[in-house]
Amino acid sequence: MKFAYLLIPLAALACADAALAQGKIFRCGNTYTNDEAVAKAQGCKAMEGGNVTIVQGTKVNGNNGTRVANAPQAASGPKVDAGEQKSRDAEARTILESELKKAEARLADLQKEYNNGQPEMLGPEHRNHQKYVDRTAEIKANIDRTEQDIAGIKRELNRGNGASR
Predict the structure, then answer these.
(1) Which UniProt keywords apply (predicted)?
(2) CA 13 to chain centre
(3) Are 46 and 38 in contact (CB under 8 A)?
C-alpha cells in the first residue's frame, strides 16, 4: 500500500522527463530534425510549443524506385491477322458511313428549318422577338457543328483507304 502512493508520482515524473528529453525540434522546409548541427547548417527554424509527431511515409523527392507507366507501343500489343484486320476495317467503315448518312440527314433538316436565315416563327416568338433571334442563332450554330462533323467523318473515311468520297 505504501508503495502505491510512491509509484504514482514516479510515473508522472517519468512521463514529464520523457517529454522534456525530446529537446528542441527544428523545421527545415518540409522536414524536421532534432540535430542542432544539421539545423544550423541548413538554416532551420526552431519549433516552439506543442509536440511534433512525425509519421514516416514514402519519399517525395527523387524518382528512386518509382516506375512511370509508358503508353503501350503498337508493336507490344497482340498481333491481329490480316483477315481479321480487314474485317475490323470494313466494320469501322460501315459504322462511319452510317454516321455520315445520319449527319447529312440532320444537316438537311437543319438547313430546311433555318430557311436561309429566316426560320418560321413559333408561337411565343411572335410576341418576343429575342426568342426568335436566339433560336435562329442556335440553328445556325447546329448547322456549323454538323458541317464540321461531316467533314471530320469524311476525313476519317478518306484516311482509312485513301479513296476520296
Answers:
(1) Coiled coil, Signal
(2) 54
(3) no
Candidates 54, 157, 45, 47; CA nearest to 99 is 157
Query: Which residue in 25, 157, 53 sits closest to 100, CA to CA?
Result: 157
Q: What is the rounded CA–CA span in Å between residue 134 and residue 121? A: 12
Long-range residue pairs from 155-163, CB within 8 A, at least 24 positions apart, any chain: 156/96, 157/93, 157/96, 157/97, 157/100, 160/89, 160/92, 160/93, 160/96, 161/89, 161/93
- The pLDDT assigned to 110 comes to 96
CB 44 within 8 A of CB 28: yes
Distance CA 139, CA 137 (A): 5
Q: Where are the domains of the chain?
A: 9-46, 81-161
The predicted model scores a pTM of 0.49
- With cell 476495317, the residue in question is 89
Residues 135 and 117: beta-carbon distance below 8 Å: no
User: What size, in residues, is the chain?
Assistant: 165
In the predicted model, residues of the chain with pLDDT beneath 70 are: 1-22, 50-54, 59-77, 161-165
